[in-house]
Specification:
- The protein is of the alpha/beta class.
- Helices cover 29% and strands 23% of the residues.
- The chain folds into 2 domains: 2-145 and 346-487, FAD/NAD(P)-binding domain (3-Layer(bba) Sandwich); 150-343, FAD/NAD(P)-binding domain.
- The strands form 7 sheets. Strands 1, 2, 3, 4, 5, 6, 19, 20 and 23 form a 9-stranded mixed β-sheet that branches.
- α1 packs parallel to α11 (392-413), α6 (221-229) packs antiparallel against α7 (232-256) and α7 (232-256) crosses α8 (258-273).
Amino acid sequence: MSHFDVVIVGAGLSGIGTAYHLQANCPGKTYAILEGRDAVGGTWDLYRYPGVRSDSDMHTLGYSFKPWRAEKAIADGPSILDYINETADENAIRKNIHFNSPLQKASWSSAEARWTLKIRVAEGEASREPITCNMLLMCSGYYSYDEGYWPEFEGQESFEGEIFHPQFWPEDLDYAGKRVVVIGSGATAMTVVPAIASDVAHVTMLQRSPTYVVSRPAKDAVANFLRRILPEKWAYAITRFKNVQLQRFMYQRTRTRPERIKEILLREVRKHLGPDYDVDRHFTPSYNPWDQRLCLVPDGDLFEAINSGNASVVTDQIECITKKGIRVSSGEELDADMIVVATGLELKVMGGVEFTADGEAVSFADHLSYKGMLYSDLPNLVQTFGYINASWTLRADLTAEYACRLINRMDELGQRQCTPRLREEDQAMDRRPWIVDFDAGYMQRRMHLMPKQGDRAPWLNTQDFAADKKMVRHAPLEDGVLTFSNPSQD
């Protein structure tokens, strides 16, 4: 049985970043990364659909410690994958990765002050010895790599063309000259449509309801200018600060003046599509901006595709899928040689891993989130979960820094265990959903399985980078809630 001080689950953007922080801040600790697939990169290695790209700028989606050097701030998937791999190689992280090692079960023992980790084995594969660790850092993301969300459509088995989810885009798929219907109105649909528009006979984005869309230049002119006149780290830090503040300002305005922001967003869409386009029907949601995530289209590429005539948007309900396409509620039939079911993600709590603590099964829905990273009464477990209203890595960096502080403080105190415990005054506080004011279907379908948050610090999952910096980076570890126990037996 192999033992490590720390085990990181996942070798994607979060896992590689966490490994860097661990090496830099806890240099004496042994660690391993368990990666279920055979490559580094997570999402950015899994997704291979045309045009796959970030929907956040790379000066905030990139790591705090590694400047983004490319000219495009809204980057394509292969460039992001290169960035993650480069980080792993520059910091000798790859040698610590156990590939093809999906975590199946994690069992905590207070008597031993350690986690025992069982690796899932493939059919026909010999069983593998468990791995043990003192601290478990979950960086496995939030959605299933094995399945995407696919609603049941009447008649889908009768379709004579190709039908698939973009999470599993067929390798070497030939869509040239084909009629394609992309079902969905989220970031994936709005990426695929302009990426293939010039090659297909026609592509239709079929949506049940509209999404707010904002166009933004793919290149950050300020960032590229600063990089020419300043040292790289200074330029990156200034750009990162600028973009964080812009993200925060925009989000706050959607909370305080939603109608004004709605007016601005729709005015920009009309500017791109012209006065004759039915923006009210196809680009005006029934909810306020940031009640669901805004979709970013770099350099207005979706609007350009629509204006070219190669792409169109249909807003309607699917009645059924036919042999030759899709019939919608209005009676119109959309002819298709190929259907892309871009209907979203299937969320997984803690990567679908089975957890037990001292022999008892863990249901995360019964636990409260401590600072959005740890969970009540669960020792030595830290989860990385980014922001839904800002770049994921802003919080991933904060979480990794905090985990390192915890590990070092346990050593200083001579204790092997840290556990958030409810204070007496916390017992009766309101339990709220893990994420509030966000109505996206992929979240709401699984929210009941997620941990809860309270109505006061530190039992908050704020989704606010400025607030988190105070609560996570600058607040003392010993706050009367986080309990250090289980003395070292050396």
